[in-house]
Write a structure and sequence with these properties.
Number of strands: 15
Strand order of the largest sheet: 5-4-6-7-8-13
CATH superfamily of the largest domain: NAD(P)-binding Rossmann-like Domain
EC number: 1.1.1.271
Bound molecules: NADP nicotinamide-adenine-dinucleotide phosphate, guanosine-5'-diphosphate-beta-L-fucopyranose
Distance between the termini: 43 Å
Keywords: Isomerase, NADP, Oxidoreductase
Largest sheet: 6 strands, parallel
Structural class: alpha/beta
Protein name: GDP-L-fucose synthase
InterPro entries: Epimerase_deHydtase, GDP_fucose/colitose_synth, NAD(P)-bd_dom_sf
CATH class of the largest domain: Alpha Beta
Strand content: 15-25%
Family: Belongs to the NAD(P)-dependent epimerase/dehydratase family. Fucose synthase subfamily.
């Protein structure tokens, strides 16, 4: 449990997106005595001092938007089944049934109802390559609106920390590799998902602005391609692994070949949703920067779509033919992301090996076929 006090942060005016070089929490007594001195010292060196009061009245009350989705369900598992929840904490997992976050009135009402101290903001319009290509406008507008409703309501209600979710697909298409956190705004995103990408990039812009103007410590994570139980296994609209699991299962049942879209050459870093859930709980508790952090497996764990479908075939014991429809698009050929920043914080974090995580997800899909999103 934290006491109330004042958070003082120094930001370099020429490099406002850099992590603060000085950051501390002072109780009110110390703070009042030192503030004038801090201002005098910093003005001549082009540092900006941000100071705001915080009052923490007790254990965290965490509101998870998008709590019914792939990532939300993984966090729920980590918190409720793996002992991630600390004594006295309250965790609330929202879905569209609780509030349509496109609607500002419903957003405010659900925040009023639960009065969170912390928010994990996952709710979004989400889909695989082929849905993005059809609906860039919806991806842009829906996500801009949901994100603004959630962030502004959190700010108005004095939420201590918001952790939002970006994606490695929002980085510039023409870039050098590996991509790191400083490169988000360096160029245009891939044409297939520009709507989603620009909407997500604005979260990072908003986080910086809330911090600079109001001292709010709102941050973001950047996961690579996620998969796991509770994914959307829809063949047309889902992401690649979940769509291919469903296709392969069907092909096995019907005795037909599996058709993979594109050449199979694009490469992806896949992260298992439960590993991501564990990392998100760590970010919520420990990560103090406003600048985002990439949550990804190592660069050498990137695999081609061809390698991934072979792992799925293995996991589902599919012995039939795997064919590639090269008339369909490949999308981004790669978006290799660096997890160096994550490794500086958590050098020993162990990711579930991909083949094992694919097997677990396939087993979950087969066992839950009647209720899974297909
Ligand atoms: P998901 O399984 O499709 O879940 C989406 C969640 O958002 C659901 O809980 C859904 O509620 C909720 N939602 C959607 N529209 C809403 C609205 N208007 N009002 C309230 N709630 C709404 O997605 P996910 O894969 O878990 O994605 C979670 C976050 O991770 C997203 O921000 C996404 O951009 C990001 N991300 C995902 C991936 C990936 O590969 N999946 C990769 C990088 C980043 P209902 O269940 O009621 O529909
Ligand atoms: O997961 P995905 O749809 O999106 O994967 P992205 C697309 C890649 O998988 C392309 C190939 O190379 C496709 O040609 N692929 C092969 C398939 N078969 C299939 C299939 O049956 N379904 C799908 N969907 N793809 C996403 C963004 O990009 O990155 C998301 O669109 C998200 O929004 C994610 O943020 C991280 O990896 O290309």
């Amino acid at each position: 449990m934290q006491e109330g006090g004042t958070i003082v942060t120094l930001i370099h005016l020429r490099r406002p997106n850099y992590p603060p070089h000085f950051y501390c929490k002072l109780n009110e007594f110390v703070f009042k005595g030192r503030l004038r001195l801090l201002y005098m010292l910093t003005r001549s060196y082009q540092w900006f001092v941000s100071a705001h009061s915080y009052i923490n009245t007790g254990p965290m009350r965490v509101l998870v938007t998008g709590g019914s989705g792939l990532v939300g369900k993984a966090i729920e598992h980590v918190v409720l089944q793996e002992g991630g929840k600390l004594e006295g904490e309250e965790w609330i997992f929202l879905s569209t049934k609780d509030a349509d976050l496109l609607d500002v009135g419903q957003t405010r009402a659900v925040f009023e109802k639960y009065r969170p101290t912390h928010v994990i903001h996952l709710a979004a319009k989400v889909g695989g390559l082929f849905l993005h290509m059809k609906e860039n406008m919806h991806f842009l507008r829906d996500n801009l609106r949901i994100n603004d409703n959630v962030l502004q309501t959190a700010h108005e209600m004095g939420v201590t920390k918001v952790l939002s979710c970006l994606s490695s697909c929002i980085f510039p298409d023409k870039t050098t590799y590996p991509i790191d956190e400083t490169m988000i705004h360096n160029g245009q995103p891939h044409d297939s998902n520009f709507g989603y990408s620009y909407a997500k990039r604005m979260i990072d812009v908003q986080n910086r602005a809330y911090f600079q103007q109001f001292g709010r410590r709102y941050t973001a994570i950047i996961p690579t391609n996620v998969f796991g139980p509770y994914d959307n296994f829809n063949i047309e609209n889902g992401h690649v692994l979940s769509a291919l699991m469903n296709k392969t299962y069907k092909a096995k049942t019907e005795g037909t070949p599996v058709t993979v879209c594109g050449t199979g050459a694009p490469r992806r870093q896949f992260i298992y949703s439960l590993d991501l859930g564990r990392l998100i709980v760590w970010v919520l508790r420990e990560y103090e920067e406003i600048a985002p952090i990439i949550l990804s497996v190592n660069e050498e764990d990137e695999v081609s779509i061809k390698e991934a479908v072979e792992m799925i075939a293995d996991a589902l014991d599919f012995k039939g033919k795997i064919q590639f429809d090269t008339t369909l698009p490949d999308g981004q050929m790669k978006k290799t992301a660096s997890n160096a920043k994550l490794r500086r914080y958590l050098p020993n974090f162990t990711f579930t090996p991909l083949q094992e995580a694919i097997k677990k997800t396939c087993d979950w899909f087969v066992a839950n076929y009647d209720t899974a999103r297909t």
